[in-house]
Amino acid sequence: MLQLIIYVLILTLFLLISRTELMELNKPKKFFTAEERNHLINNLARAKEYGDPRQVWVEDGHVFVEGHDGEVVSMTPAVAIKMGRMLGEAGADSLINQVMDDSAKTAE
């Protein structure tokens, strides 16, 4: 499950990075311009849920991730490390939110 979350986030971040040449999307969402907000909404609407990655490997100084559908994403080691940390934190936050939501539902 965590691998699924990681793969989805990697691809989502890759799409956001590859299509945001001049947009600064690192600022808090409340400071986004209308164009930036629409751009982000459109990217998130295209996000797909993925299964477990088939494999992850290193070649010629790059890290490669092959998704369940055969699509391959390449990144530098520094990006892979940073993204891995960010995805791990986001995955943990998501699991915590699920537990909190389940607790709230059973308390009702």
Question: How would you describe this protein?
Answer:
By secondary structure, the protein is of the alpha+beta class. The protein has one domain (2-107). It is 56% helix and 13% strand. It has three helices and three strands, in the order H-H-E-E-E-H. It has helices at residues 2-18, 34-45, 77-107; strands at residues 55-59, 62-66, 72-75. It has a three-stranded antiparallel β-sheet with strand order 1-2-3. Strand 1 (55-59) and strand 2 form a beta hairpin. The longest helix has 31 residues, at 77-107. It starts with a helix and ends with a helix. The mean pLDDT is 78.
List the strand order in the largest sheet. Answer: 1-2-3
Total of helices: 3
From the alpha-carbon coordinates, what is the Rg to the nearest angstrom? 16 Å
Distance between the termini: 28 Å
Helix content: 55-70%
Structural class: alpha+beta
The coarse silhouette is globular
List keywords for this structure.
globular; three-stranded antiparallel β-sheet; 108 residues; 3 helices
Would you kindly provide a brief summary of this structure?
The chain is α+β, with helices and mostly antiparallel strands. Helix content is 56%, strand content 13%.
Topology:
Layout (H helix, E strand, L loop, with lengths): L1 H17 L15 H12 L9 E5 L2 E5 L5 E4 L1 H31 L1
Helix pairs in contact: 1-3
